[in-house]
Every structure is written in structure tokens, then in C-alpha cells.
Sequence to fold (119 residues):
Amino acid sequence: QVQLVESGGGLVQAGDSLRVSCAASGRILSNYRMGWFRQAPGKEREFVASIYWSGGSTYYADSVKGRFTIFRDNAKNMVYLQMNSRKPEDTAVYHCAAKVADTIKYDDWGQGTQVIVSS
Fold:
């Protein structure tokens, strides 16, 4: 099992940048895939981005392509989501998640960090 703790959320103006972080601990294997999801008020949780723990392929939701970047620092057991050109519709609770790469379901989740983008 992997423990995940997000941080770095806050209030930003539209167009500003923000980086949220995810500290991972526990049994992290090189074949894990790390993801960022978000849930806006009154909406279902949606996928934002993912990356292999060992590096390599990244995937993004169409709504964030070109604006958000997911990256990791294995030495620090950290996964980050750099968010640029923020829009009010990016307002949500952002969750970090982990799964074994060839499985469908993310098994481990963090509590989330709130990000609010004001117009």
C-alpha cells in the first residue's frame, strides 16, 4: 500500500501558475503509475494527468494539455503537477493517486488539496 499526501493548494488568479505536490511513502514499486485527478464542486472526479513512477510516458486530459505538466522526483518520493495559465474552471480539489501500471483502478489515494482560481 502507498500513502499519499498532497500539498500546495491555494487561491490564485486566473492566468497565474501553481504547483501542487504529492509525497508518497510505503511500498512504491517501479511499475507503479502515479496520477492526478480533480473534483470540482457538484461534479464527478476526473482524470488530469499521469506518469510512470520510473519515468517515461505521460498522459493528460485534453482540458489541461499544454497548460499542466506532471513530473516526479524519485529521490524525494514526490510527484508534482505544475499548473500554468490557470482558468476558473480549474477550481477543484486535486487528488494524487497510485496504481500498478497494468491495472485499471487506482488503489491508493490522497486526501486532496483545494485549488481555487478566481477570475
